[in-house]
Protein backbone atom coordinates (compact mmCIF):
# COMPACT_ATOMS: atom_id res chain seq x y z
CA UNK A 1 0.00 0.00 0.00
CA UNK A 2 1.28 3.47 -0.76
CA UNK A 3 1.50 5.84 2.17
CA UNK A 4 -1.26 7.96 0.76
CA UNK A 5 -4.13 6.63 -1.29
CA UNK A 6 -6.56 9.09 -2.91
CA UNK A 7 -9.95 9.31 -1.30
CA UNK A 8 -11.85 7.26 -3.85
CA UNK A 9 -15.24 7.84 -2.29
CA UNK A 10 -14.86 11.55 -2.76
CA UNK A 11 -13.76 11.22 -6.37
CA UNK A 12 -16.71 8.96 -7.15
CA UNK A 13 -19.25 11.24 -5.57
CA UNK A 14 -17.90 14.19 -7.53
CA UNK A 15 -18.39 12.13 -10.67
CA UNK A 16 -21.98 11.25 -9.80
CA UNK A 17 -22.83 14.81 -9.03
CA UNK A 18 -21.39 15.94 -12.33
CA UNK A 19 -23.29 13.24 -14.24
CA UNK A 20 -26.51 14.01 -12.47
CA UNK A 21 -26.34 17.66 -13.41
CA UNK A 22 -27.19 18.27 -17.04
CA UNK A 23 -23.69 19.26 -18.13
CA UNK A 24 -23.12 16.15 -20.31
CA UNK A 25 -26.63 15.39 -21.45
CA UNK A 26 -27.28 14.34 -25.05
CA UNK A 27 -28.20 17.09 -27.45
CA UNK A 28 -31.48 15.76 -28.77
CA UNK A 29 -31.56 18.19 -31.66
CA UNK A 30 -28.36 16.65 -33.10
CA UNK A 31 -28.68 15.05 -36.55
CA UNK A 32 -26.00 13.63 -38.81
CA UNK A 33 -25.20 15.78 -41.84
CA UNK A 34 -26.61 14.67 -45.19
CA UNK A 35 -23.25 15.18 -46.81
CA UNK A 36 -19.78 14.91 -45.34
CA UNK A 37 -18.16 16.75 -48.23
CA UNK A 38 -15.57 14.13 -49.07
CA UNK A 39 -15.30 11.18 -51.44
CA UNK A 40 -17.47 10.76 -54.50
CA UNK A 41 -20.59 8.78 -55.28
CA UNK A 42 -19.72 5.36 -56.69
CA UNK A 43 -21.30 4.64 -60.08
CA UNK A 44 -23.50 1.56 -60.46
CA UNK A 45 -21.16 0.28 -63.13
CA UNK A 46 -18.13 0.51 -60.84
CA UNK A 47 -20.03 -0.98 -57.92
CA UNK A 48 -21.16 -3.95 -60.02
CA UNK A 49 -17.62 -4.48 -61.28
CA UNK A 50 -16.18 -4.38 -57.77
CA UNK A 51 -18.73 -6.68 -56.22
CA UNK A 52 -18.84 -9.29 -58.95
CA UNK A 53 -16.09 -11.82 -58.52
CA UNK A 54 -15.68 -14.42 -61.20
CA UNK A 55 -16.23 -18.06 -60.11
CA UNK A 56 -14.15 -20.95 -61.55
CA UNK A 57 -16.68 -21.64 -64.32
CA UNK A 58 -16.13 -18.12 -65.67
CA UNK A 59 -19.71 -16.95 -65.22
CA UNK A 60 -19.87 -13.18 -65.44
CA UNK A 61 -16.69 -12.72 -67.44
CA UNK A 62 -17.21 -9.68 -69.66
CA UNK A 63 -16.66 -9.20 -73.38
CA UNK A 64 -13.12 -8.45 -74.46
CA UNK A 65 -10.12 -10.20 -76.00
CA UNK A 66 -6.57 -10.67 -74.80
CA UNK A 67 -3.36 -11.39 -76.67
CA UNK A 68 0.24 -11.87 -75.61
CA UNK A 69 1.53 -8.88 -77.60
CA UNK A 70 -1.03 -6.49 -76.12
CA UNK A 71 -0.50 -8.00 -72.67
CA UNK A 72 3.22 -7.44 -72.81
CA UNK A 73 2.59 -3.75 -73.45
CA UNK A 74 0.15 -3.53 -70.55
CA UNK A 75 2.63 -5.30 -68.33
CA UNK A 76 5.60 -3.13 -69.25
CA UNK A 77 3.60 0.08 -68.89
CA UNK A 78 1.56 -0.68 -65.81
CA UNK A 79 2.90 -3.64 -63.83
CA UNK A 80 6.60 -4.11 -64.37
CA UNK A 81 7.63 -1.28 -62.03
CA UNK A 82 6.37 -3.27 -59.07
CA UNK A 83 6.30 -6.89 -60.24
CA UNK A 84 9.66 -6.84 -61.99
CA UNK A 85 10.93 -7.19 -65.51
CA UNK A 86 10.87 -10.99 -65.33
CA UNK A 87 7.63 -11.11 -63.28
CA UNK A 88 9.45 -12.42 -60.22
CA UNK A 89 8.70 -9.41 -58.02
CA UNK A 90 10.47 -6.40 -56.57
CA UNK A 91 10.39 -4.72 -53.17
CA UNK A 92 7.15 -3.08 -54.28
CA UNK A 93 5.22 -6.07 -55.57
CA UNK A 94 4.97 -9.80 -55.20
CA UNK A 95 6.35 -12.36 -57.66
CA UNK A 96 3.66 -13.41 -60.13
CA UNK A 97 5.37 -16.46 -61.62
CA UNK A 98 7.87 -19.10 -60.53
CA UNK A 99 7.94 -21.21 -57.41
CA UNK A 100 6.11 -24.14 -59.00
CA UNK A 101 6.35 -27.14 -56.70
CA UNK A 102 7.93 -25.06 -53.91
CA UNK A 103 4.92 -24.86 -51.60
CA UNK A 104 5.71 -28.10 -49.80
CA UNK A 105 9.38 -27.22 -49.35
CA UNK A 106 11.08 -25.15 -46.65
CA UNK A 107 11.23 -22.19 -49.02
CA UNK A 108 7.74 -21.84 -50.48
CA UNK A 109 7.22 -19.16 -53.12
CA UNK A 110 3.57 -18.33 -53.51
CA UNK A 111 2.66 -17.05 -56.96
CA UNK A 112 -0.06 -17.36 -59.57
CA UNK A 113 1.99 -20.17 -61.09
CA UNK A 114 2.66 -22.08 -57.89
CA UNK A 115 -0.53 -21.44 -55.92
CA UNK A 116 -3.61 -20.04 -57.65
CA UNK A 117 -6.08 -22.83 -58.49
CA UNK A 118 -8.24 -20.95 -61.02
CA UNK A 119 -7.31 -18.57 -63.82
CA UNK A 120 -10.71 -16.89 -63.49
CA UNK A 121 -9.59 -15.41 -60.13
CA UNK A 122 -6.80 -13.58 -61.89
CA UNK A 123 -9.39 -11.71 -63.91
CA UNK A 124 -11.33 -10.53 -60.84
CA UNK A 125 -8.23 -9.72 -58.85
CA UNK A 126 -6.40 -7.75 -61.51
CA UNK A 127 -9.50 -5.94 -62.73
CA UNK A 128 -10.51 -4.85 -59.23
CA UNK A 129 -7.18 -4.14 -57.54
CA UNK A 130 -4.32 -3.59 -59.99
CA UNK A 131 -2.34 -1.50 -60.52
CA UNK A 132 -2.54 -0.52 -56.86
CA UNK A 133 -2.15 3.11 -57.89
CA UNK A 134 -5.21 3.03 -60.19
CA UNK A 135 -7.41 0.01 -59.44
CA UNK A 136 -10.24 -0.51 -61.91
CA UNK A 137 -8.48 1.49 -64.60
CA UNK A 138 -7.71 -1.38 -67.01
CA UNK A 139 -10.14 -2.19 -69.83
CA UNK A 140 -11.44 -5.75 -69.92
CA UNK A 141 -9.28 -6.49 -72.96
CA UNK A 142 -6.24 -5.16 -71.11
CA UNK A 143 -7.00 -7.53 -68.23
CA UNK A 144 -7.40 -10.51 -70.58
CA UNK A 145 -4.20 -9.50 -72.35
CA UNK A 146 -2.05 -9.13 -69.26
CA UNK A 147 -3.38 -12.53 -68.15
CA UNK A 148 -2.10 -14.08 -71.38
CA UNK A 149 1.26 -12.44 -70.77
CA UNK A 150 1.48 -13.71 -67.18
CA UNK A 151 0.16 -17.21 -67.90
CA UNK A 152 2.33 -17.70 -70.99
CA UNK A 153 5.40 -16.41 -69.12
CA UNK A 154 4.63 -19.07 -66.51
CA UNK A 155 4.36 -21.72 -69.25
CA UNK A 156 0.78 -22.45 -68.28
CA UNK A 157 -0.66 -21.52 -71.68
CA UNK A 158 0.83 -20.95 -75.10
CA UNK A 159 1.56 -17.36 -76.06
CA UNK A 160 -0.67 -17.92 -79.12
CA UNK A 161 -3.74 -18.30 -76.98
CA UNK A 162 -6.33 -15.57 -77.49
CA UNK A 163 -8.18 -15.20 -74.24
CA UNK A 164 -11.82 -14.22 -73.81
CA UNK A 165 -14.86 -15.04 -71.68
CA UNK A 166 -15.28 -18.44 -73.33
CA UNK A 167 -11.93 -20.01 -72.55
CA UNK A 168 -10.50 -18.67 -69.26
CA UNK A 169 -12.21 -21.48 -67.34
CA UNK A 170 -10.54 -24.11 -69.55
CA UNK A 171 -7.05 -23.16 -68.36
CA UNK A 172 -5.54 -25.86 -66.15
CA UNK A 173 -3.67 -24.22 -63.30
CA UNK A 174 -0.69 -26.25 -62.03
CA UNK A 175 -1.73 -26.23 -58.37
CA UNK A 176 -5.42 -27.07 -58.78
CA UNK A 177 -4.77 -30.48 -57.19
CA UNK A 178 -2.82 -28.94 -54.32
CA UNK A 179 -5.89 -28.09 -52.26
CA UNK A 180 -7.72 -30.39 -49.86
CA UNK A 181 -11.29 -30.04 -48.66
CA UNK A 182 -11.53 -28.85 -45.06
CA UNK A 183 -13.75 -31.40 -43.39
CA UNK A 184 -13.91 -29.96 -39.88
CA UNK A 185 -17.58 -30.47 -38.94
CA UNK A 186 -17.46 -27.81 -36.25
CA UNK A 187 -16.54 -25.16 -38.78
CA UNK A 188 -18.74 -26.19 -41.65
CA UNK A 189 -21.85 -27.59 -39.94
CA UNK A 190 -23.61 -24.23 -40.05
CA UNK A 191 -22.70 -23.57 -43.66
CA UNK A 192 -23.93 -27.01 -44.77
CA UNK A 193 -27.24 -26.72 -42.98
CA UNK A 194 -28.03 -23.34 -44.53
C1 LIG B 1 2.56 0.26 -57.40
C2 LIG B 1 2.91 -1.15 -57.36
C3 LIG B 1 2.09 -2.13 -58.17
C4 LIG B 1 1.74 -2.07 -59.49
C5 LIG B 1 2.04 -0.96 -60.48
C6 LIG B 1 1.05 -3.30 -59.77
N1 LIG B 1 1.00 -4.08 -58.65
FE1 LIG B 1 0.20 -5.93 -58.53
N2 LIG B 1 0.60 -5.98 -56.55
C7 LIG B 1 1.25 -4.99 -55.85
C8 LIG B 1 1.28 -5.35 -54.45
C9 LIG B 1 1.88 -4.52 -53.32
C10 LIG B 1 0.64 -6.60 -54.35
C11 LIG B 1 0.38 -7.41 -53.08
C12 LIG B 1 -0.97 -7.01 -52.57
C13 LIG B 1 -1.38 -7.81 -51.37
O1 LIG B 1 -0.80 -8.87 -51.10
O2 LIG B 1 -2.34 -7.38 -50.70
C14 LIG B 1 0.25 -6.97 -55.69
C15 LIG B 1 -0.38 -8.16 -55.98
C16 LIG B 1 -0.69 -8.57 -57.27
C17 LIG B 1 -1.22 -9.87 -57.62
C18 LIG B 1 -1.54 -10.98 -56.63
C19 LIG B 1 -0.29 -11.82 -56.45
C20 LIG B 1 -0.49 -12.92 -55.44
O3 LIG B 1 -0.07 -14.05 -55.70
O4 LIG B 1 -1.06 -12.66 -54.35
C21 LIG B 1 -1.42 -9.88 -58.96
C22 LIG B 1 -1.96 -11.02 -59.79
C23 LIG B 1 -0.98 -8.59 -59.46
N3 LIG B 1 -0.55 -7.82 -58.41
C24 LIG B 1 -1.01 -8.23 -60.78
C25 LIG B 1 -0.67 -6.96 -61.23
C26 LIG B 1 -0.83 -6.54 -62.61
C27 LIG B 1 -1.35 -7.43 -63.73
C28 LIG B 1 -0.42 -5.24 -62.67
C29 LIG B 1 -0.45 -4.32 -63.86
C30 LIG B 1 -1.71 -4.14 -64.51
C31 LIG B 1 0.01 -4.85 -61.33
N4 LIG B 1 -0.15 -5.92 -60.50
C32 LIG B 1 0.52 -3.62 -61.00
C33 LIG B 1 1.79 -3.83 -56.35
C34 LIG B 1 1.62 -3.40 -57.65
Q: Your description of this structure?
A:
The chain is an all-alpha fold and 194 residues long. It has a domain at 62-170: Cytochrome Bc1 Complex, Chain D, domain 2 (Orthogonal Bundle), CATH 1.10.760. The chain is built from seven helices and no strands. It has helices at residues 8-20, 44-51, 68-78, 80-83, 119-129, 140-153, 185-193. The protein is extended and about 75 Å long. Residues 74, 78-79, 81-83, 92-94, 96, 110-112, 122, 125-126, 130-133, 138, 146 line the site of heme C. Heme C binds at residues 74, 78-79, 81-83, 92-94, 96, 110-112, 122, 125-126, 130-133, 138, 146.
What structural class do helix, strand and pairing data support? mainly alpha
Shape: extended
Reported by name, the CATH topology of the domain at 62-170 is Cytochrome Bc1 Complex, Chain D, domain 2
What is the distance, rounded to the nearest whole angstrom, between the alpha carbons of the first and last residues? 58 Å
Alpha-carbon Rg, integer: 27 Å
Mean pLDDT: 88
The name of the CATH superfamily of the domain at 62-170 reads Cytochrome c-like domain
Task: Report helical residue fraction.
Answer: 25-40%
